[in-house]
Design a protein that fits this description.
This protein has three domains: 57-67 and 108-283, Beta Barrel (Thrombin, subunit H); 289-382, Pdz3 Domain (Roll); 400-496, Roll (Pdz3 Domain), CATH 2.30.42.10. It is 21% helix and 33% strand. The chain contains twelve helices and 27 strands. A hairpin with a 7-residue loop joins strand 7 and strand 8 (200-211). It is elongated, with a radius of gyration of 32 Å.
């Protein structure tokens, strides 16, 4: 190697520098060879053909038709006795669009999408939005076979549907893989029915994980740059082992076509829902019975959490499982059934995937201290509408004060009528908000009621200012208010007190 380096070195370089250069080169090679495989770049597959050939037989086209009745069309207004009156009536009646006794027309609305077989007996998975309210669904296989399908179950929250076809022979099926092990940069392959063209294969990488596109309460999408277009919905996203790691569901596109930003429901999210639909024909999600909100930096500081984390409880359903378990407004859930709750988006997804009736440990931060509560989950479908707790308080004098850019007063009958407050609403009513204050930036409005300050109930403006001074004395930079709107719904708001 030294001779090779000497031969490559400039003619003006002496032997010692050449030896040093050779030594550095050798060390670099040694370090590179010692790097773990995960740290070294992996070459792209030479071809996806073998993988595509292996799994394409399980990918199907979905044709869904919905029959709707079209309303009669009113004939153009014509002068009485016009020679064209009979001509127009005959024309529209022939088309089923006439007046009076003309029958309603039936019109079919068609949609095309993709799907895949997960059980050789004839179980097919697709997106809920592909089938919608269709009353005629067909599954078209790669060999041209067309079979009628019936709906086993569907779920709009995760946008999934399970279909069943009758078959005389076992069908080619694919299995779900471990989507949680995917990393940005991993190769994936999509197969589907873009624009009705039939089985099409595209490939790309995982661009990101855990994407929230505000399409539902359990958004946790895989983002990929594999081309996904209209008609790909419901089709599978494969890893390089031929396992389904995602179900292609949505695209982000200003043009309507692929711009390299597609989204797939992870297998880890889809599989439990599919199992429930197959078993029960409906979902049976776990229910905790709390209303939550995010924890920002200011709120974390006010609660003494250190870093922003967890899900802050802003309301507890009186009839939900959380109430008897001792969970309360102001608790911050940081762990549920052994799973970390990094932010408020994590909690609904974790709770929903937990079996109904299971007893779980819920770790909360309450007034700076960690506590563990044991909760037996209910069923979400039995408690979709949650009730809000009203906070207890005492009688409220009418004195007024200013603090944090807010003018406050005790609740009087006149203020209760002015702002439409409920008869049982307790706390301190806000009568004015300084438009240049942090409270205005946080969208606090006149007529809202301060129920708690620093997680302590308040009943008079003096209580509010006293609590603020006490929190300042603790060296805190923010104060946490529990604010109720005129409907009695509460939320936490952190305001700076510096």
């Amino acid at each position: 190697m030294i001779q090779a380096m000497n031969a490559l070195a400039p003619s003006g370089m002496g032997r010692l520098p050449r030896l040093l250069a050779a030594s550095c080169f050798a060390v670099a090679l040694s370090v590179a060879s010692a790097l773990p495989m995960a740290a070294q770049a992996r070459s792209a597959p030479e071809s996806f053909a073998d993988l595509a050939e292996e799994v394409t037989g399980a990918v199907v086209n979905i044709s869904a038709s919905t029959t709707v009745e079209a309303k009669n069309r009113t004939l153009p207004q014509l002068p009485p006795g016009t020679p064209f009156e009979d001509l127009f009536e005959e024309f529209f009646n022939r088309r089923g669009q006439g007046n009076g006794d003309s029958p309603l027309r039936q019109r079919k609305s068609n949609s095309l999408g993709s799907g895949f077989v997960i059980d050789p007996s004839g179980i097919v998975v697709t997106n809920n939005h592909v089938i919608g309210d269709a009353n005629d669904i067909s599954v078209i296989f790669p060999d041209g076979t067309r079979l009628k399908a019936e709906i086993v179950g569907k779920d709009s929250k995760v946008d999934l549907a399970v279909l069943k076809v009758k078959t005389d022979k076992p069908l080619k099926a694919v299995k779900f893989g471990d989507s949680d092990s995917l990393r940005p940069g991993d190769w994936v392959m999509a197969i589907g029915n873009p624009f009705g063209l039939g089985g099409s294969v595209t490939a790309g990488i995982v661009s990101a994980r855990g994407r929230n596109i505000d399409s539902g309460p359990y958004d946790n999408y895989i983002q990929t740059d594999a081309a996904i277009n209209k008609g790909n919905s419901g089709g599978p996203l494969f890893n390089m082992n031929g396992e389904v790691v995602g179900i292609n569901t949505a695209i982000l596109s200003p043009t309507g076509g692929s711009v390299g930003i597609g989204f797939a429901v992870p297998a880890s999210t889809a599989a439990p829902v599919i199992d429930q639909l197959r078993q029960f024909g409906e979902t049976r999600r776990g229910w905790l019975g709390v209303r939550i909100q995010s924890v920002d930096d200011a709120t974390a500081e006010a609660l003494g959490l250190g870093a922003a984390r967890g899900a802050l409880i802003a309301g507890v359903d009186e009839k939900g499982p959380a109430k008897p378990a001792g969970l309360d407004v102001g608790d911050v859930i940081v762990r549920f059934d052994g799973k970390e709750v990094k932010d408020s988006r994590d909690l609904p997804r974790i709770v929903a995937s937990t079996p109904v009736g299971k007893s779980v440990d819920v770790v909360v931060i309450r007034k700076g201290k960690e506590e563990v509560k044991k909760v037996t989950l209910g069923r979400l479908e039995d408690g979709e509408k949650q009730a809000n707790l009203q906070q207890p308080s005492t009688d409220t004098p009418t004195a007024t004060k200013q603090a944090l850019g807010l003018e406050m007063s005790g609740i009087t009958e006149e203020l209760r009528r002015r702002y439409g407050l409920k008869d049982d609403q307790k706390g301190v009513v806000i009568t004015r908000v300084d438009p240049n204050s942090a409270a205005s930036d946080k969208r606090i409005q006149p007529g809202e009621v301060i129920v708690e300050v620093g997680q302590e109930p308040v009943s008079t403006p003096a209580d509010v200012t006293k609590r603020i001074e006490a929190i300042k004395g603790q060296g805190r930079k923010s104060v946490l208010l529990l604010v109720a709107n005129t409907q009695g719904e509460v939320r936490f708001v952190a305001l700076s007190i510096e």
